[in-house]
Amino acid sequence: MKHIYFFLIFTAVFCLSVQNGFAQDNPSINYPKQNIEGLSVFPNPVGNNASTVYITSSNKFAIKKVAIYNVLGKQIKSTITTRKELDISSLNSGVYILKITEGTVSETRKLVIK
């Protein structure tokens, strides 16, 4: 009878430890970079007379694909640039979303034009 209780307790403890043991993350996995390093969009908010927004990142010579969306999600403008200047003279006052892609990494920023 003692052997049966010992076996049941041993089995229960083993099952509980195995159940929690495999759910841990492996800290040695290198996850891909999720953000563009050093990304900056300025001036923001943009004043009435400004027609240029500057987009900079740590990689100064990287090709950037920039898409501009309105708040409803409709793409207004799309461009590919290696320079840091982005012409916004065709945009009206309002709030826009910039989707900036550098290599395989994308990041979004809000842009306000007064």
UniProtKB/TrEMBL annotation:
The alphabetical list of record keywords is: Signal
Residues in domain Secretion system C-terminal sorting? Answer: 41-113
| Record's signal peptide | 1-23
Query: Per its UniProt record, what InterPro entries does this chain match?
Result: Secre_tail
Against Pfam families, the record matches this protein to: Por_Secre_tail
Is Signal included in the keywords of this UniProt record? yes
Q: Would the keyword Transferase turn up in this protein's UniProt record?
A: no
The domain of life is Bacteria
- The identity of this protein, by name, is Putative secreted protein (Por secretion system target)
Q: Provide the species name.
A: Jejuia pallidilutea
